[in-house]
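Appendix B. One record, verbatim.
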Amino acid sequence: MHIDHINIRAPKDLLEQVRHFYCMVFGLEEGFRPAFSSSGYWLYAGDRPIVHLSIGGEAPVAAVPNHLDHVAFQSAGLGAFQETLDEHAVAYRSNYIPEIDMTQLFFSDPAGTGLEVNFPGERVS
């Protein structure tokens, strides 16, 4: 089993900011999306639509509290990724785990979704 995609549902104006963020920061590209009853975007990494964006109204008050803390991606090119975050004024914090030789970057998208990007075999200089 593996995670297929994440979906973020937000009002149209915020969703446009989120779409721009994932395209600029992660280099995702907008691609084919079936004709669903709601509008939105599918953002692709290569040939996989890994981030789905759906236009919705204001966030409803959940009947059950949301305990999702963040979504994590694995990538390569730590230095270039940090430059991209700096270029777009995205605040982040880093953590290095020596036991598994991996650097993690933590930040949030414009909708407040917690994000973690892992860089195995790379260390902050």
